[in-house]
Amino acid sequence: MRRGLGQRGLRRVAALLADIGDGARLYGRYIALSIRAQMQYRASFIMLAVGHFLSTGIEFLGIWALFARFGDLKGWSLPEVSLFYGLVNVSFALAEAAARGFDTFDGLIRSGDFDRLLLRPRSIALQMAGRELQLMRIGRFFQGLVVLAWGAAALGLPWTVDRIAIALGAIVGGAFVFAGLFVLQATLCFWTVESIEIINTTTYGGVETAQFPLTIYRDWFRRFFTYLVPLASVTYFPILAILGRDDPLGTPHLFQALAPLAGPLFFAATLQAWRFGVRHYHSTGS
Amino acid sequence: MPQIEVENLVKTFRVAERQAGTWGALKGLLQRRSRTVRALDGISFTMEVGELVGYIGPNGAGKSTTVKILSGILIPDSGRCVVMGRIPWKARTAHVAEIGVVFGQRTQLWWDLPVIESFDLLREIYRIPPREYLRTRDELVAMMRLEPLLDTPVRQLSLGQRMRCDLAAAFLHRPKLLFLDEPTIGLDAASKLAVRDYIKRLNRQGVSVILTTHDMDDIEALCRRILLINRGRILFDGALEALRAQVSRDRQLVIVLAHEETWVEDPDAQVIRRNGHHLTLRFDPERISAADLIARITARYEIRDLYVENPPIEEIVAQIYYEEGTAL
Amino acid sequence: MSAYVALFKARLQMGLQYRAAALAGLGTQLFWGIIRLMIFEAFFRSSAAPQPITYQQTVDYLWLTQALLLILPMRLEGEIQQMIRTGAVAYELARPTDLYWFWFFRSGAGRTAALALRAAPLYLLAWLFLGLKAPPSWASAGAFLLSLACASALGCALATLMTISLLWTVSGEGISRLLNLLAYVFSGSVVPLPFYPAWAQRALAFLPFGGLMDTPFRIYSGHIPPEEALGAIGHQIVWTVALILLGRWILGRGLRRLTVQGG
């Protein structure tokens, strides 16, 4: 009896793993094709990527100018702020590239082409994610990486294994948070049809916010980006761990290092909201 | 057991009303009015395996709502709907794996990719076993003569070529039931024929087809049975000939005049359309035979060409809508 | 002119119909403004050193940036781009109107309508609740309105220049994106221009982009006193005229190229 249960459980796990592998393979297929399609317009891609590099990098120019005028920001130096800036930009670039299919969802729903996704025997979210991997976002990615590297070099931080692990965790966790926000933005389209900009406050606004340590903001605002949108968990806390700085909010080091796990959790929650949106679509048809 | 069973299907939508003018738009900011539209008002029908049904009706009649419910995209407000033993929206993935859908206005192929890549991706999406896939694909390629198109990016295909590829794409996973939504819209005459031929062939293989179209030539060429829908209700369900007989037995004589300004009159026929040199007369074959009417007309007027035709189905349909409208 | 008014009204109505989008846009701008406000507040609290522009003036500057962001030539004219790609632009040539002014007013109508819809409520909210002060004097207010009108004309001239550059399909898109970027940074919408280093100030003062935002905003808060405003507005006007002339000249060349290619 017990062995029978154990076997059934095993079989279920095996089926789940096979499903995940199957989905991953399809996603890989989608992405390979999307990249090939974009490579057909190589000149345009290069132009867009360079443009993206410049236009996102220009923000850093502004920050630099402000530090030149004011010296420091509530006890934080420019190289320290560079870590925040670089990390959040790299995360956001990853999410922007991978969740592009969700970002452009309003067009899909208005044209009626969303129906096509429902007519295919696969997970809707998977098909959405596979719609496009936007390569030009590599511009922001490198821009963030350059700033991140400069900040680390200027601070003379030794890149130990645990620092690198925390940084990678923060980047991936951050990408999950932003991807989740794109999913929420798409989910809202089920009700509004227009893509409404309000989510931009948390995506682009989140990038703008997290470029600086969250302690410089008012409390209500900091709480918003800590508890509602867990941006603090993927920028502020892990960077404190990397810098080895004490948190004026008093969080322990271990918590800071593990905080990026909030990213995937947030993403999973937004997928639930998405499913709710799909159900709404099933009953209203737009 | 029928393949499709639909009973008393009802679906309503809420539609926001826009108010006219700048003032209206400003008012709309504060309060929005909406009204409820009954897209389906108690639809019932059944369909057996292997049938080819023409589903016709004016825009907004409820055709696409029905198709969306049958294909599992929409959930009806009430009523029963069983397709191949399943309730479509309750088991979406299992259901859609067994149906094929083509929207004439849109493509399901990837715009920037060669056709063959889209096919391969669909194989992955539908989890078609490789050997089976190759067999079906080659068969379809031969049937639709797609060989020269396979390496072309979809955006470079003509509409007719694209539609042929789309039809093949919809059949790669060998669905048992096909929904075709205006598959011939905008196509040139040759492509229309090719598409019709393909539909006929698949149907002969035992695939059931529901065809919505505005092109009555499609209906005449393909469908033994038609479902006529208007304002969310089925007005007619049966053979095309029966529909024709039900409405009128009138026939039409089209003549091409030598001189545009000629005035044509006949006691047994009625001029119903005039378009340059072309003139359409309606007559009742019980009162005067076509041969007699032609003899009389050619004797009296200078005619360049003429032919007799059944009243186009559009007119029959229009007449039914009209009668229904006056009855209400 | 009546066509312009009709276009303006149509765009206004279109904008009003999308209630959710309009409200969401407003919310976004507000939120964004609040973030920027807090960042600057933190900077001002970090240093007691005198700055080239006071905190209150910065606050005014930031809110005006949020309210009037659409002055910037941000978006490419999608419709015209499409027309150029498909060759349908030939129909535009067949119109009995001057193409330059047609495009100028066409984009102008859309931009002004969107600007008005966005600016008025945001200005009001920022003034009531979020620290934006009224101009220090009637003279400043008057000069501000005049300068704002010039900024809007300057924005239209730049936007039309971007549209025209699209006649050169690929390189044109690159150029207009670059122009877009320059306008974004050097108008003062990333960081108010007075905060840039002293050595950059002369170049910033020469370029046309400051005329889009920096000039009217500093006039508003009295950073440029009313008696100096006339010179600043003159700078805006000179650049507007220059860009219009440049645009007309480039359009002529672009069209010649188009006819040589056979459309």
What does this protein structure show overall?
The complex is a heterotrimer of chains A (286), B (328) and C (263). Chain A has 286 residues and is mostly helical. Helix content of chain A is 76%, strand content 0%. In chain A, helix 2 runs parallel beside helix 8 (138-155), helix 3 crosses helix 9 (161-192) and helix 9 packs antiparallel against helix 13. Chain A starts with a helix and ends with a helix. Chain B folds into 2 domains: 4-245, P-loop containing nucleotide triphosphate hydrolases (Rossmann fold), CATH 3.40.50.300; 249-310, Alpha-Beta Plaits (2-Layer Sandwich), CATH 3.30.70. With 328 residues, chain B is an alpha/beta fold. In chain B, helix 7 links the parallel strand 6 and strand 7. In chain B, helix 5 packs antiparallel against helix 6 (159-171) and helix 6 (159-171) runs parallel beside helix 7. Chain B has helices spanning 21-30, 63-70, 92-96, 115-125, 130-144, 159-171, 189-204, 216-222, 240-247, 290-300, 313-327, and strands at residues 4-17, 33-47, 52-56, 78-83, 99-103, 177-181, 208-212, 225-230, 233-239, 251-257, 269-275, 278-283, 303-309. In chain B, the strands form 3 sheets. Chain B has a 6-stranded mixed sheet with strand order 5-6-7-3-8-9, sandwiched between helices. The longest helix of chain B has 16 residues, at 189-204. By secondary structure, chain C is mainly α. Chain C has one domain (2-261). Chain C contains 11 helices and no strands. The longest helix of chain C has 36 residues, at 226-261. The interface between A and C is large, with 35 and 36 residues.
